[in-house]
Amino acid sequence: MLETLVALFLVGLVTVVVLAVVLAVLGTVFSLAFGAATFLLFKVAPIVLVGWLVLKLLERRSRPDELSPADRRWLDGGS
After folding, report:
1. How far apart are CA 8 and CA 25, in angstroms?
2. How far is residue 7 from each of residues 15, 21, 49, 78, measured CA to CA in Å?
3. How far apart are alpha carbons 61 and 63 in whole angstroms?
């Protein structure tokens, strides 16, 4: 009977240790993912948005219908 109690105690102990390790790994993974998402959302996304807006404003100021003389020569097949 004592052997059964010791066996059950060891199985429970191993289960608790394995569960603790698994939860620690999951916590680390979620922490890294949350940190990366926060960095991308609050550091990178505003810079990309400002860059995109600046490019759109510059594109709107220039006339996309006009080609430079070098582009016109290239399209006509000249050198």
Report:
1. 26
2. 12, 21, 61, 88
3. 7
Our CA angle for 5, 6, 7, nearest 5°, is 90
Q: Are 75 and 67 in contact (CB under 8 A)?
A: yes
Burial of 64 (0-12, 13-18, 19+ CB in 10 A): exposed
pLDDT per position as a tens digit, 7-35: 999 999 999 999 999 999 999 999 999 99
71 or 38, which is more confident?
38
The DSSP secondary-structure symbol of 40 reads I
Q: Nearest 10 degrees: CA dihedral of 34, 40, 41, 43?
A: 120
Helices assigned H by DSSP within the chain: 2-39, 45-61, 69-76
CB 73 within 8 A of CB 79: yes
